[in-house]
Amino acid sequence: MSAALRPAAWWRSCSPTSWRSSSCAPSRAGWRCRMVKQSLPKRIGIAVLGWGAAFVLFFPLLWMLLTSLKSEPEAVNPSLTFTPTLQSYGEVLARADYLSFALNSVIISVGGTVLALALAIPAAYVMAFHPTKRTRSTLLWMLSTKMLPSVGVLVPIYLLFRTLGLLDTRFGLIVVYTLMNLPIVVWMLFTFFKEVPHDILEAGRMDGARTGAEVWHLLLPLTLPGVASTGLLSLILCWNEAFWSLNLTSSAAAPLTAFIASFSSPQGLFFAKLSAASTVAVAPILVFGWLSQRQLVRGLTFGAVK
């Protein structure tokens, strides 16, 4: 190894992409970056902030899990001795309608995600590669609809669905989930599509590719991480949604979020069973998110480094 490339105290060989994380300068041996050493108080502060955020995020899940392992008297009165039991899980899973609720959740979440992507991909393509003067204002207008509270549009949507016969149907929930998630899905796809150079699509047009071929054979393969992460986010939002499922459906087409609400009654709440039902409903999406976290992070950082 030459003397110019030997590692020094705080220097290493790197490329220009390291500019964002370190101080770089050109040299005869290539690019050399000076790594900035963080002070001890700053590192402690970052660690405390990170662990604090993790605690805030995971404490409700831990509390829910522990409550689900208690009996009803122990769940109501935490001062009693904690004796772990799976009785609440047995009663939740023993219900005859559990599998029906779970199947509804899968169908509605997947259907809402697929429909949202099918509508958002053409819209994002037009906004990214055929922009007009009103493209930006249209995108901002779509995003502004997310600021409206769901309860504010409940009555008109309920009346519309009743007229169309979509109340208490899976397709009705698929439609409303698509409408609720479409602005954020279009915005994310628009951001990913903007990272693709226009020259690539122009080369495809010169070879005779039509619009459909451009999107299917050129654009989507290049932005697959971003499209996949957008689909994962839409799936999670559909799975966790509760407001519309409680107001537009009954038990016939309701997902697991409505199944959780069935453990409350005018006489009170069954905290242990409620926590067990919540754990059963949350577990699949947590496992799915954990298995797909690499793809999700890869998509969210798509285009960050060129």
Instruction: Let me know the largest β-sheet.
Output: 3 strands, antiparallel
Sheet/helix structural class: mainly alpha
Tell me which CATH architecture of the largest domain applies here: Orthogonal Bundle
- Structure annotation, total helices: 14
Report the end-to-end length measured between terminal Cα atoms.
29 Å
Question: How many E-type strands?
Answer: 5
**On the 0-100 scale, what is the average pLDDT?**
83
Spatial order of strands in the largest sheet: 1-3-2
Number of structural units classed as domains: 3
Element pattern in H and E: EEEHHHHHHHHHHHHEEHH
The radius of gyration over CA amounts to 25 Å
Determine the CATH topology of the largest domain: MetI-like fold
Give the name of the CATH superfamily of the largest domain: MetI-like
Which percent range fits the helix content? 55-70%
CATH class of the largest domain, anyone? Answer: Mainly Alpha
